[in-house]
Amino acid sequence: MQIRFTKMQGAGNDFVVLDETQGQRGLSPAQYRFLADRHFGVGADQILSVRPAPAEGIDFEYAIHNADGGEVEQCGNGARCFARYVHDRGLTTKKVIRVKTLSGVIAPEIVGEGQVRVDMGRPELRPEQVPFDAAGLQSRAVGRAQTWQLPLSDGAAQWIMPVSMGNPHAVLLVDEADTAPVAAVGPQIERHARFPQRVNVGFLQRVSRSEVRLRVYERGTGETLACGTGACAAVVAGIHQGLLDTQVRVHTRGGLLQIAWAGGEGDSVFMTGPATFVFDGQIELPEAP
Ligand SMILES: N[C@@H](CCC[C@H](N)C(=O)O)C(=O)O
């Protein structure tokens, strides 16, 4: 089967976008893996499938699949690319677009010059809601936050703060993002038994109260050039620990994201950043599965 797609990227986090507004809904996990494959397929960190509105008051639905084929709840950089896709391709004339994801409805807004601002909803800090099994682990309070010491399989231990942005994150503070042990520690925490749905792992370097550097080892994908929900989770963790102000510039390997959070547990996190078209294409899909 031939399939049309659009390649997009947001701060270097890259996507294959599929328009499923006219029919054809869903591929097999193997077909998503094929599209994400950088040697045999198109190449992407995630696949975004744009679908018609499922209910009154919502404009679209979109599904997110990681490079490993698994479906996930939320994607910050993907939300910005989704918004530019439906707006610039004439699927809507709205600038604020209400879209349903697996974890709820979010509202990206086209703000011009290739930038999109997204109300990412409120963070969830209760460990069991991330989900994170904190039972019996050593814990300490830092500012308003609770952090936990996670034992790793190599015998070391790491202080982490779990945060959900609709999808699960563990945030670690590091001295230098550039030299952080992302490849060694990231996979150990991603599949740690204490995170029953696995987890995205953020390595956060505080530069000042309004500036951080961040690298993220993403669940189901590995390290990406940027992770939008990871940036939101890291800033929430930093603000909650008393380390950051309410507006923070997040430098990732792929570009700049601006995150704002007023700091109350009921407050939404806002993310602003780029969303860029790369190319359109067509590819022969392998038979499912
Ligand atoms: N790149 C994304 C996050 C994609 C999903 C994530 N890997 C997960 O499994 O939760 C972003 O920009 O937020």
From TrEMBL:
Entry's localization field: Cytoplasm
| Enzyme Commission (EC) number | 5.1.1.7
Q: Carries keyword Transmembrane? A: no
The site (Could be important to modulate the pK values of the two catalytic cysteine residues) lies at 169, 218
Ligand binding (substrate): 13, 46, 66, 76-77, 167, 200, 218-219, 228-229
The main place the protein resides is cytoplasm
- Establish whether keyword Cytoplasm is in the entry: yes
Q: Which UniProt keywords apply?
A: Amino-acid biosynthesis, Cytoplasm, Isomerase, Lysine biosynthesis
User: What is annotated as the active site?
Assistant: 75, 227
SUPFAM superfamilies membership? Diaminopimelate epimerase-like
Q: Which InterPro entries match?
A: DAP_epimerase_AS, DAP_epimerase_DapF
Q: In which pathway does it act?
A: Amino-acid biosynthesis; L-lysine biosynthesis via DAP pathway; DL-2,6-diaminopimelate from LL-2,6-diaminopimelate: step 1/1
Entry-linked Pfam families: DAP_epimerase (PF01678)
Note the subunit structure: Homodimer.
Which family does the record claim for this protein? Belongs to the diaminopimelate epimerase family.
Q: What does this protein do?
A: Catalyzes the stereoinversion of LL-2,6-diaminopimelate (L,L-DAP) to meso-diaminopimelate (meso-DAP), a precursor of L-lysine and an essential component of the bacterial peptidoglycan.
Q: Supply the name of the protein.
A: Diaminopimelate epimerase
Which organism does this sequence originate in? Comamonas endophytica
Organism lineage reads as: Bacteria, Pseudomonadati, Pseudomonadota, Betaproteobacteria, Burkholderiales
Q: Gene symbol?
A: dapF
